[in-house]
Design goal:
Elements: E1 8-17, H1 21-32, E2 35-40, E3 49-56, E4 59-66, H2 72-80, E5 83-91, H3 94-103, E6 108-117, E7 120-128, E8 134-139, E9 152-153, E10 165-174, H4 180-191, E11 194-199, E12 210-217, E13 224-231, H5 238-246, E14 250-258, H6 261-271, H7 286-290, H8 297-303, E15 306-310, E16 313-319, E17 330-337, H9 347-361
Parallel strand pairs: 1-4, 5-8, 10-13, 14-17
Antiparallel strand pairs: 1-5, 2-3, 2-9, 3-4, 6-7, 7-8, 10-14, 11-12, 12-13, 15-16, 16-17
């Protein structure tokens, strides 16, 4: 039984601050199969920002840009480039979630606030977390509109094929060296979360770079946030490259779940999404390493999909290249077939692939 005085039902949405919201929303629709469902901007009375809400099954992304100069949104973009500002949780009691967090030492961003329109009401509040990232608590039981009060239903006037993405599996936060443990302690203290999975530089390293990672999870393990930091290596790790270009700790990638990773990746690849390549040697003796799998090995090799196994089953995963020009935010596509792991067996192959991209950028 949870000792928390409130419950988290799941990821509510992730809000990205970007330089051009309309073009970014169009990219996510065209390449990743998201569907615009809601909008706020000048036409809805929002004078300082514009936002497009993109949906695919249980995933909601809010793409936001400033409409004026000298705004907090603009400062965030100047510092970080395009990136994720808010990892929001759906909760049963936003006020209690905020009050509990503040009582335990969190810093407030937004006191509990009731917002409403003709579709009902929603209570929201927010606190700081690592870097400039925040967590918003969204209590939406009394709301039936397209997203939140202040948004209007919206689309771009065309239908697009979904890619089969269903929900957010996990959200990864990168920290500067030495900051992983304090951030994990923060989630234990503020949220009462526990350490679900952990690896260190003995597990995940190449001849050049390494990382340490702890996956934090809430009591029902619906929410999982891996917290990474770089470890010492001969050259700069991908975690340090992220910190250098993002400017602070921040969200490195979103892992989006699919029920058919081959179909999802086929469509996204056709739509123009760039994935990290996997060397053909990875697929030699694959079934000897992971055991029998349902998927055709040649198809996995053609698409570059990775496979890992634990005591509960196996999982398939692949990573996009950074979505914007700075080598910061990217996406993971994941299909779980029993496995609850985070691909420890794939990290070395993944790191080598990322290091090749770093070398091309002159950052290794």
């Amino acid at each position: 039984m949870s000792s928390q005085p409130y419950s988290i039902k799941g990821f509510d949405h992730c809000e990205l601050y970007v330089g051009n919201a309309k073009q970014t929303a169009h990219y996510y629709q065209s390449t990743m199969g998201f569907r615009p469902i809601a909008y706020r901007g000048l036409e809805t009375g929002s004078r300082d920002r514009v936002s497009y809400v993109l949906n695919q099954d249980h995933i909601n992304l809010v793409i936001t840009s400033p409409l004026e100069k000298n705004t907090d949104i603009g400062v965030h973009i100047d510092c970080h480039g395009d990136g994720i500002k808010d990892v929001a949780f759906t909760v049963d009691d936003s006020e209690m979630a905020w009050k509990t967090s503040i009582d335990r030492g969190a810093i407030s961003v937004l006191k509990p606030t009731l917002i409403s329109d003709e579709n009902g009401e929603t209570r929201i509040s927010a606190i700081e977390t690592f870097g400039d990232t925040i967590h918003t608590f969204v209590e939406r039981d009394q709301y039936e509109g397209p997203f939140l009060p202040g948004f209007q239903a919206y689309n771009f006037g065309r239908e697009n094929e979904t890619t089969g993405l269903v929900h957010i599996d996990h959200v990864v936060g990168n920290q500067p060296d030495g900051e992983m443990q304090p951030v994990c302690d923060y989630y234990e203290k503020i949220f009462g979360w526990h350490r679900f999975w952990t690896v260190d530089d003995k597990d995940i390293s190449t001849e050049y770079s390494a990382l340490r990672s702890v996956v934090m999870a809430n009591d029902n393990e619906i929410i999982k946030i891996p917290i990474n930091e770089p470890a010492d290596g001969l050259k700069k790790s991908q975690i340090q490259e992220f910190i250098d270009y993002y400017g602070t700790a921040g969200v490195q990638h979103l892992a989006l779940s699919t029920r058919d990773i081959i179909s999802t990746v086929e469509i996204m690849h056709t739509n123009g999404v760039d994935f990290l390549p996997t060397p053909p040697s990875y697929y030699e003796n694959l079934t000897k390493r992971v055991g029998p799998i349902d998927e055709d090995i040649e198809t996995l090799a053609r698409l570059g999909i990775l496979v890992d196994v634990d005591e509960n089953g196996y999982m398939l995963q692949i990573f996009t290249k950074p979505i914007q020009d700075r080598p910061t935010l990217f996406f993971e596509i994941i299909q779980r077939k029993g496995s609850n792991s985070f691909g420890k067996g794939n990290f070395r192959s993944l790191f080598k692939s990322i290091e090749q991209e770093q070398k091309r950028r002159g950052n290794l």
